[in-house]
Structures are given as C-alpha cells and as structure tokens.
Design a protein that fits this description.
Blueprint: E1 2-8, E2 11-21, E3 24-32, E4 37-45, E5 48-58, E6 61-69, H1 70-74, E7 79-89, E8 96-98, H2 108-114, E9 120-125, E10 128-134, E11 151-155, E12 158-166, E13 169-171
Parallel strand pairs: 1-7
Antiparallel strand pairs: 1-2, 2-3, 3-6, 4-5, 4-7, 5-6, 8-9, 9-10, 10-12, 11-12, 12-13
C-alpha cells in the first residue's frame, strides 16, 4: 500500500492511499472538510496528474473511493502528492424560498418534473436562474434527468443540488 499527502493550498489536510489489485488500483482519499464548497482530488506525479473525482462530505470529512487502472497511475511516474481543488465555492446569501418551484418555469417539461417537489430555493445571478433542490437521503435525486449539470451546495443549512438555467435552458452552474 502506498500513501501520499493530500494538500489544499499547500496545507496537508489528509491523505490518499493506493492499494494495488493487479491491473487496477483501489484509491481512497480523505481530508478535513473545510465546509466552504465542493472539492475534487487530484493525484500528481513527476510526469503529470490524474483527476480522481469529487470528495463527498461524510461526518465532517471529505472522502472518495474508486478503482482506477494501474497503468494510468504508472503513467504519472514517481508519485509526489495529492491535491484538493475547490470546484464550487460556497456562496451565501440571496436565496429565496419557494414551496412550488414549478411556477418558476413556463416550460411544461420542467413544470411536470418539479410539480409536487415541495420546498426549494432560487435566486438570480445576472441572466441565470439558480434553483436549489434538497438532496435528501433515501429520496430520489432531484431532477435526475439533469444530474450531470447539478452541483452540491449547502443552502439555508440543507444539502441541495443546484441547477442553473438561462432562458429555461439548463446550463452548467457558475
């Protein structure tokens, strides 16, 4: 098993462990949760870097576990360290609560999918409408058809999936 430090802005906040499993390597990363947004973990070596994925919050710690091809790690050369990079910073304030997010849209496509969704939050940023839907354990993923365009963010104390829309067209959140 190999271990490398996981750094954020130069400070060591955790570690990445690598366990060889033949042609694949089990990778585990964990670090303290600074509570200020979403982070992605990268593994750096002499020859380049490999993005490992998003660190998920779990009990005050950000964690990631996945299996990658050993050849992809070997291509990095001698491993130096891991790096946690903030993807989406926490941006407080400006959210307005709604009990009927379907009313924010004219499109029947979104009206149907948001009908009965319950509580949500929204705000405008320039020409964008940002919609935050609670992501509750044991419940279906909100707006599953757009899951790849959502980002996790804490809104009004709740973990939510935030989607961005420009003229009712889904876009990547800022």
């Amino acid at each position: 098993m190999e271990r490398v430090k996981l750094r954020r802005r130069g400070s060591c906040l955790g570690e990445i462990t690598l366990r060889d499993q033949g042609g694949r390597t089990e990778v585990r990363a964990s670090m303290e949760d600074p509570g200020d947004g979403l982070y992605r973990a990268f593994l750096r070596g002499e020859q380049g870097e490999l993005m490992l994925g998003v660190l998920a919050p779990e009990g005050g710690v950000l964690t990631l576990q996945r299996t990658v091809y050993t050849r992809d790690i070997a291509a990095l050369g001698r491993l130096e360290e891991g790096e946690a990079r903030q993807s989406f910073p926490f941006r407080p304030a400006g959210w307005r609560e709604t009990r009927c997010p379907a009313q924010l849209f004219r499109s029947p496509f979104f009206q149907v999918r948001l009908q009965g969704m319950g509580r949500a939050w929204w705000r405008r940023e320039e020409t964008l409408l940002l919609l935050a839907l609670p992501a509750e354990a044991g419940r279906p993923f909100p707006l599953e058809c757009l899951f790849c365009l959502g980002r996790l963010e804490r809104v009004e104390g709740e973990v939510c999936v935030v989607y961005a829309f420009q003229e009712e067209e889904p876009v990547l959140p800022p």
